[in-house]
Amino acid sequence: MEELEIIVDENNYEIGIRNILKKIREHWNSDGIKFKSFTDGITNKLIGCFYTDPQTSRDEVLLVRIYGNNTELLIDRIAEKKNISYLHEHDLAPELYGTFKNGLIYEFIPGSTLTTTSVYEPSLWHLVATNLARMHKLPLSSEESAKVPMLKSKSLKFLNLIPNSLSDPVKNARNKVTFIDYEYAELNFQAFDIGNHFAEFPGIDSSNGIDYTKYPSRDFQFNWIRAYLEEFKESNVTDDDVVTLYKQVNKFALASHFLWTLWSLIQAEHSTIDYDFIAFGSLRYNEYLAKKDEFLNL
Questions:
Q1: 3 state DSSP class of 191
Q2: What is the mean predicted confidence (pLDDT) over 98-111?
Q3: How many CB atoms lie within 10 A of CB 162?
Q4: What span, in angstroms and rounded, lies between the C-alpha atoms of 191 and 63?
Q5: Is residue 112 part of a domain?
Q6: Which regions form coiled coils (predicted)?
Q7: What percent of the chain has pLDDT over 70?
Q8: In the 8-state DSSP scheme, what is residue 273?
Q9: What is the CATH number of the domain that holds 143?
Q10: What is the mean pLDDT of the chain?
């Protein structure tokens, strides 16, 4: 893996990325490279690099992730690289081709981002459930096993990072599953991962509000959790197993709302991405309050 001493300007990225590609894709003719900025992410800037080999007509694609402004306050970038490499060894992440001073270069895997509709499709949710279970079964190193789940420490860290006042409170506003956002991966409770996933079934587009009536129903969660446990346990799954994890998952969905509320306030202060983080944080916090009593009493 290449480690390059290059800084890419997120507002004028083509020059920096071309310099990177000269190192890791020497056979690419600079004149034939095309770029596409993907706009779904709200932490980093993601650029697709496309090239067609003139000799073979073979299409090649890779992704360049440019770290968001001051996201090192939120994310352990050294751990991120280890996470991607480790998960790639187990076919749960793309290949990491290289790093530069403020970002990563990695494999492009064709596919579609889950939507608030497709996330309910049986063929897809079952893949998500079983692949998440596969990830949770991966062995931990002795160093990792000695750690405690990150939820408390991460929440406290985020609390300490929230500014006393916000300088800019409102901004203008296939048969395989591949996970993303490895920068946020840390040792944590398994029920938090599932609760966090369920909490995002209604989406994250806050421009027109988030419809939390799309939060998965009890019956759907039971089916999802059973598929997850069948892969995770590799043994008989009882109804009690499903109910126990269901209760834990929904309590941790509350923790997910709270954590991303804190994250939103920090991003509102530092991020240059055109996204209304304040609105998103407000929606997440209001949903936390709306579901708090119901979920804690399960």
A1: helix
A2: 94
A3: 15
A4: 31
A5: no
A6: none
A7: 91
A8: S
A9: 3.90.1200.10
A10: 88
170 and 204 share one domain? yes
- What is the C-alpha separation between 186 and 149, in angstroms, rounded? 8
Query: Has residue 292 got a pLDDT over 60?
Result: yes
Enclosing domain of residue 199 = 118-296
Q: What local confidence, expressed as pLDDT, does residue 174 receive?
A: 32
Domain end point (choices 107, 126, 159) = 107
Cβ distance 97 to 20 under 8 Å? no
Distances (CA, A) of 223 to 178, 217, 220, 263: 21, 10, 5, 31
The residue with tokens 């970038």 is: 77
Model pLDDT, residue 164: 65
Domain end residue (candidates: 77, 107, 137): 107
Q: What pLDDT is attached to residue 172?
A: 27
H helix intervals, the chain: 13-24, 77-89, 122-137, 142-145, 151-161, 190-199, 218-233, 239-270, 277-296
Looking up tokens 């995770």, which residue turns up? 232
Look at 121 and 187; give whichever has higher pLDDT: 121
Per the structure, the count of domains in the chain is 2
For residue 61, what are the β-bridge partners? 50
Strand order in the sheet with 96-100: 2-3, 96-100, 103-107, 59-66, 45-52, 34-38
pLDDT, position 245 = 96
Check which CATH number belongs to the domain holding 10 and give it: 3.30.200.20
User: 123 and 270 share a domain?
Assistant: yes
